Amino acid sequence: MNKNVYIIGSGFSSLSASCYLAKEGYNVTVLEKNSTLGGRARQYKKEGFTFDIGPSWYWMPDVFERFFSDFGKKPSDYYTLDKLNPGYEVYFGENSSVKISSELNEIYNLFESEEKGSGKHLASFLNSAKENYDTAIKDLVYKPGVSPLELVTTTTIARVTQFFSTIRKQVRKNIKSQKLIQILEFPVLFLGAKPSNTPAFYNFMNYADFGLGTWHPRGGMYKVIEGIVSLGESLGVDFKTNSNVEKILTDSTNKVSGLIVNGEELRSDLVLSGADYHHTETLLNKNLHQYSDSYWDKKIFAPSSLLFYVGFDKKIKNVSHHTLFFDSDFDAHAEEIYDNPKWPTNPLFYANFTSITDKTSAPDGKEAGFFLIPLAPDLEDTEDLREQYFHKIIDRFEKLTNQSVKENIIFKKSFCVNDFKEEYNSYKGNAYGMANTLLQTAFLRPNIKSSKVENLFFTGQLTVPGPGVPPALISGKIASELIIKNKNK
Ligand SMILES: Cc1cc2nc3c(=O)[nH]c(=O)nc-3n(C[C@H](O)[C@H](O)[C@H](O)COP(=O)(O)OP(=O)(O)OC[C@H]3O[C@@H](n4cnc5c(N)ncnc54)[C@H](O)[C@@H]3O)c2cc1C
């Protein structure tokens, strides 16, 4: 039996799959077009500063534990985790912010102090969120998305209304404070859609937030990439960077026969792609695409982003490791992302200063700052616009946090729509895949197994279960299980 498999890309999903397949005895080669591994989770280092280029929130620690335990390992074999307290901070106006504690009791107190009676509502909301977490994360999200029946269990039947109601409705039923509403609607933004377009069942993200907490791998998210690569190497995976896959070859029966990589032909009858799904299909002859251009065009994609990695020559005050700036109109910004795509008039933004809790990310007395503005995918992206928006948010940042920082910038580097396209072959420059709306959940997401090309499989944030690092790890497991099952048929 031929067990050579090529994996396209080295994001979390590809790395996860590489380990499962190597453990099963496959000869695995990972082909990454960029010069470093990790996909959207790469690292940027400059002048003693270290930034995670993409993901920075380590949520759902149980998913990482489950991944490593499949190989008889623990996360602590590869990296050290710190639980952040506060988990994060949210600004609502000048000198007005709340800190989300790592202790649930303190979160209840915070809610009560904002709105009388809201602590009780939060408790029952979190009970339901925990039940959904147990149903979803321990079971549903590990299903391959090949049949609607995967979603039919006694638990989901009992919760069917939660698939047809939305997070927005559920949150607003009992809570009236705009601040508390924004805090409760924030976690589903990780799923890539508006809260008004995200099924209430996804409130399990609120349990992930308040119940399980926000963690930080010392040294940054890239430590997790390094951990998985090291696990993969110990299992025999061959990692090749600077390896751009230009074509997927098929034989006369439409079965995978190889790849063209940097102009050279590699023979293999099994390929798994963790590169953006739309891009992977463009590597095939058109008659072998499963999805048309109009299919992709109609899908709701997660936002793109304008990002800045900034080295400051002093410590920044009045902020936490993760800080959200929700001082502008959330609905207006969401409309400019999803309904009427354009550069936002008055954007919400997010910043992290990992060097507040992690000394390894900036030299002594200095601060590493990461700023993110969510944007509609495929917007025009120019240096001018990037600069304009940097000034917009940094002026606001100074006002909101009551300090001047502009003259303390040692360097800044930006990353935006064009970079997402160029660096990751990302469809329309999306930052984190296809949103988890009701019609883009489970079996309604793009197939893990190609229906047109035999032995071509897909993994990653456009497949099941969806966007985010924990789902990417799970997606790698699902795809490899399907490959193994297919081989054994
Ligand atoms: C700015 C940002 C912030 C985020 N924040 C968080 C967060 O805080 N927490 C969280 O959980 N998630 C977060 N996410 C989402 C998370 O990073 C992603 O969902 C996840 O990393 C995606 O992994 P993946 O394996 O699907 O794909 P990717 O990481 O995109 O990997 C795909 C890889 O394929 C490679 N590739 C593409 N085409 C080819 C080709 N032709 N040949 C060879 N290689 C190719 C690409 O270079 C890339 O390395 C964030 C994402 C971004 C961008």
What would you note in describing this structure?
The chain is α/β, with parallel strands linked by helices and 489 residues long. It has 3 domains: 4-80 and 219-298 and 434-487, FAD/NAD(P)-binding domain (3-Layer(bba) Sandwich), CATH 3.50.50; 104-212, Guanine Nucleotide Dissociation Inhibitor, domain 1; 301-424, 2-Layer Sandwich (Guanine Nucleotide Dissociation Inhibitor, domain 2). Helices cover 34% and strands 19% of the residues. It is built from 16 helices and 19 strands. The protein has helices at residues 12-23, 61-69, 104-114, 118-138, 154-158, 160-164, 167-174, 178-185, 204-212, 222-234, 277-282, 293-298, 330-338, 383-401, 417-424, 469-487; strands at 4-8, 27-31, 43-46, 49-52, 81-83, 88-93, 96-100, 215-217, 238-240, 245-250, 256-261, 264-267, 271-273, 304-312, 322-325, 349-352, 367-375, 409-415, 456-458. The chain has a 7-stranded mixed sheet with strand order 7-6-15-16-17-14-18. It has a 5-stranded parallel sheet with strand order 9-2-1-13-19, covered by helices on one side. Strands 10-11-12 form a 3-stranded antiparallel sheet, with no helix packed on it. A hairpin with a 2-residue loop joins β11 and β12. α1 packs parallel to α10, α1 (12-23) packs parallel to α16 and α2 packs parallel to α16 (469-487). The two termini are 12 Å apart. Flavin-adenine dinucleotide binds next to α1, β14 and α16.
